[in-house]
């Protein structure tokens, strides 16, 4: 009996302990305030912060943030891109490059584009999160938009900007931020977070950006030009992140600049979000051949955090613990940054379950959807600027004429994607667009004629490849990254191949989307001697071997890139070619072809197009030549920048030969900045500026060519006559730069663009000519479409303070897109008030409304002859 009682007491005690454990287990799931979804984000961040160790805090301050399992914090990678569509994460809609969107002068369009982009970003993030993937290019913090001023057309990264004007850049930058971040509510999760970059005074050169010091900047240039858009994004856009630049500003690295980050950004503007370093920028503080302002990573990291840089893209912040131990920084000072990072993650819902976040319910079908393709087409159409149209060469007829399509950009889809891009479902090239629009595609002749800068044209010799008596390339695949064991799949590739895992498309059946490797083998037996080129476009790890000798290898970390190799061959000999490939990060991609760069033969090209009635030449340059710190050093190009702004000579020479035929020539210029097109204009009947127009660019160009769309875009940058009109590239003084300070005559001015309609401006009127500070006045101007073609006019308003001889010639302060039917007149109204009248004051070193006379100008471009004016006195 006693033993039974003892057993019974034991069971009761065990039951009590089990219940106690369950009770405390339940309490644990609710015991910390940071886990309570019913309390505010600020309170949750404060509670979690105090539970972190120093090591854990430091791990959260790096772009690839480690998980902290004991506190339920998941791994998170802060680095994601969406410059003009979700980038480097596979299938996505590819919209026109930002410089092209800037040409629309349409903030509503930009807002709608980036609202679509953030829909795709959220949907992709949900897919990744459900798979347990938290890698680079999979998160919710989008490092865009780029709102640096394109002060000089030689800068390679100008393609990422919204042009040369502070007002337009701020207007469209805010639209991009609002589209990305979505509506803001204090008690709900954010959609995604945008990032204003690169702060500040940053616009080339690319080759020395890690050591360059932007110094002796006039306060006027600083606030009036370089900082304006950033201030707009902070105050009007509520942007949640700011990225500090690589260069120095007045002797201090931008990511360690107290003046920029603490005084201006935090104190003057009240920014409360995150400052993230550009990637590797903290290492530039102490690296040789960089800024070398600090001795080592310890000192550099402490200085960066103390100056306000919360998050590092890089690895220097790993030394912050030593910085604390050395007394270079206090843990409490690190807490300031960590709290901001935690708050951002709470606000994004990234710390909570997917089902709690309404944004995670966005249907994945939005990714590269037909609706977004339609929007990409609209954006591309609205971005195209008609620069010349002699004798009404355009629009073309859809039937009855034979069209020769020529030029290096006519059939290049990759050019249209720009940079920092995703991978579209399809790309309509300019050639595709013309063929599909022409009523008889057999009347369209394609002859490339020349390369971009090289006097050659690539001709494929893939047909001369075979492996074990089978034409083409033999492919082997493994579901590991080391080609270990027996291959999972073997197949023959009989044609030049373009393999990409975007859209969950595997390289071959039964091969995984990630974590795989491959070998491609063939024997090339040429039928002629000469130099042959292996053309590759790669995202992943790749090794290229010819006759068992390693000739090329690369590991991409920022999306796919071109990787070519040329070598001499003899007719009849055999050359064993092997490519070893492995998935790296993001989508895997491998394109391959082999062939000869044939010398340009003018007579051959002329013979091929002799029966054509008109020539459409798609030329310009390419993102393979201009961009971010590239390894390109060709005539006219240096590390992604340009050393010359002329059209490459090889293209101009071919144009001259084509001009001799007497056939009308329509030149389509694809570029990310201005090209000196004066000589092109002499040999062309019409010129179109198409930028890098995205996946639907070819259709948009064809719509303009054939009159299915009436162009209304305007230049967001000045097109200069030649490089002699530009100051020294490294001189950051604004005098002599952009329409605001350029005192000479440009080739095509800022705000310029033609239409198939003809608009006439009437007399400008103001409801009153004198106002007090703080008041506003309504300005009205009648605009008449004197043609019979309906169209949009881009009406621009400029302001100038009359007694300021050293200031800008004029400043854009408002713009309206107005639809006017043929023969009709519309009264266009602007309200001019405090925001439009702010002007630089030397007395207060700021932009303020001042007493005095102002000139208000309204018209179709920034040059005087296109503007109507009126005087306004402010008391």
UniProtKB/TrEMBL annotation:
SUPFAM superfamilies: (Trans)glycosidases, Anthrax protective antigen, Beta-D-glucan exohydrolase, C-terminal domain
UniProt key word Signal: yes
Keywords of this entry: Hydrolase, Signal
Pfam families for this protein: Fn3-like, Glyco_hydro_3, Glyco_hydro_3_C, PA14
Entry superkingdom: Bacteria
InterPro entries per record: BXL, Fn3-like, GH, Glyco_hydro_3_C, Glyco_hydro_3_C_sf, Glyco_hydro_3_N, Glyco_hydro_3_N_sf, Ig-like_fold
GO MF annotations in UniProt: alpha-L-arabinofuranosidase activity; xylan 1,4-beta-xylosidase activity
Biological process according to GO: arabinan catabolic process; xylan catabolic process
Segments forming domain PA14: 468-610
Recorded family membership: Belongs to the glycosyl hydrolase 3 family.
Protein name per Swiss-Prot or TrEMBL: Beta-glucosidase
Species this protein is from: Chryseobacterium soldanellicola
